[in-house]
Amino acid sequence: MSRPVPIPRSLPMAEALAQSSPLASLLQRIQESEARFALVRSDLPGLLATQITPGPLDETGWTLLARNGAAAAKLKQCLPRLQTLLRDRGWADVPIRVKVHVSRGV
Question: How far, in Å, CA of 60 to CA of 88, rounded?
């Protein structure tokens, strides 16, 4: 008769993130991207805010994801104002990229 294999103790998510510097860095960048978007979202005209989601933030810039080309084009017109808003609120001045991200339904 074989002995049962002990199941390793699972870590709570916060503890796992704290123990892994790459994961902690990823979490920090995700939170910063969401915080930046929370600030600029209210400054987007009309229903444009519903067509945009925050994307990755890395050392080369911040990406905003548009649901379609028309939203991306309108967002690009707003970029100078959004960058000024972020800079005025103390965020690091990084380039903002706009990409079209079409979600595929199941």
Answer: 20
Q: Is the pLDDT of residue 105 over 70?
A: no
CATH of 33-100, one of 4.10.80, 1.20.144, 3.30.300, 3.30.70: 3.30.300
3-state SS string for 7-72? CCCCCCHHHHHHHCHHHHHHHHHHHHHHHHHHHHHCCCCHHHHHHEEEEEEECCEEEEEECCHHHH
Contact residues for 29 (Cβ-Cβ < 8 A; gap 6+): 56, 57, 58
3-state class (DSSP) for residue 99: strand
Tell me what pLDDT residue 77 has: 96
pTM of the predicted model as reported, rounded to 2 decimal places:
0.79
> Residue type at 51?
Q
Does pLDDT of 102 surpass 80? no
